[in-house]
Amino acid sequence: MVSRSLRAEAAPADIAAAPLPQPYAYRRHEAVEPDWRRFPGWRDITEREWRDPQWQRSHCVKGVRELRAVAGPGLDEAFYDDVEADQRHHATMSILLPPHVLNTIAPHTAVETAAWYEDPVRRYMLPVASDRHPLWPSHPLASRDSLHEAEMWAVEGLTHRYPTKVLAELVSTCPQYCGHCTRMDLVGTSTPQITKYRFVLRPADRLDRMIDYLRATPTVRDVVVSGGDVANVPWPRLASFVGRLLEIDSIRDIRLASKGLVGLPQHWLAPQVLDGVAKLSADARARGVSLALHTHANAAQQVTPLVAEASRALLDAGLRDIRNQGVLLDGVNGTTEGLLDLCFALLDSAGIMPYYFYLCDMIPGAEHWRLPLARAQELQRSLMGYLPGFATPRLVCDVPYVGKRWVDQADGYDRERGISSWTKNYRTTVDHDDPTALDRVHHYYDPVHTLPQQGRAWWTSAQALIGAAS
Ligand code: SF4
């Protein structure tokens, strides 16, 4: 402890030179765009090609054949086999990696197997079989559409799950596919394990019905325009849809959802897109509507200078805000340092607001990524006080049939079996006529492999019963 007299003598400069030791040491994130020329397959790619969204889209890596052509002998054959085994036996999402995403894996080293195995972006964007948990790859109660969104469709692709908010899924594709995608039942192309559902209606008809529903439902004031990823909606169709939303006086908030800002920033830097965003933003502003973009970065190294450039350009074009909704993933960002590094990178470099981190949803094959609720509660506490209050992210659990809840809002928590209990304070379209809806208790489940021995034994017995009943 500093004595009273010493403190009195210390000049301000001395105090500044000797910062207090803290559990997390803040440092300004100085990003450098990783050099794509370290990949043998991109040695001759010019900056002009790299910044071209069409070049990026047409050179996506979709499997081991393309990966080998780009990464070459730096990655062992065993690594390629591991990727292939994952696609064959486990994957719920197919591989789709724009060069920009691949370039953020082990960003400042030569392409090399050990670095790739350890890398946080690789761990969720390019899954390998050896990452999956050997005993509990899936939770016994994991399911496709674990949030039951399709049950709450007011019209096809329009999820009405909260009193004043809806989610409009315009498209079922993205510029990149993430291994842990919560909409794995619908988004992307089928894998050997998962045959994807498909929208039935024609896109134009679906969008018309969404608009009709919203016109007829003035209690909805907030529309998340999502997918998939709106970066895959042809711009004229997206602009027309948002333009029609703006004409509905009851809608006050519109949020475009695009991980593409992080995975394919070239898309959002395209002049046609920026011009279009500027027009929509001006229209929104004139009508008093908040038009924002939500993106999805999970590791600080994803906030490259190009991502920051695209983000700043969108803000300059007039978007009200850009916010990040990440997912808590073990081995990717499940530490205080990982989360704070990411939040400061977003805020300092790109002007992106850290907003949410979700516990990973209970989809099949996700157990090696999922963190228990107790860990999320610890992480939430450890984040407090470092970031400005307005930029301190909330860690949330998206509870099936309930919705997002802050991780400290559980009504009960059996730590031995990893079962948390949650209630809600509103009705959804599936329980609107149920008099017990607001008293009913819903559950979220921790990954079994993180439980104490008694809890694991309980789930081993329960798994047999669940299997017999299903
Ligand atoms: S961008 Fe979003 S919707 Fe698309 S695969 Fe990733 S998590 Fe799923």
From TrEMBL:
Record carries keyword Cell division: no
Lineage top rank: taxon: Bacteria
Record CDD domains: Radical_SAM
Secretion signal, residue range per the UniProt entry: none
PROSITE patterns named in the record: RADICAL_SAM (PS51918)
Gene3D superfamilies in UniProt: Aldolase class I (3.20.20.70)
Cofactor(s) in the UniProt record: pyridoxal 5'-phosphate
SUPFAM superfamilies the record matches: Radical SAM enzymes (SSF102114)
Organism: Streptomyces pulveraceus
Protein name: KamA family radical SAM protein
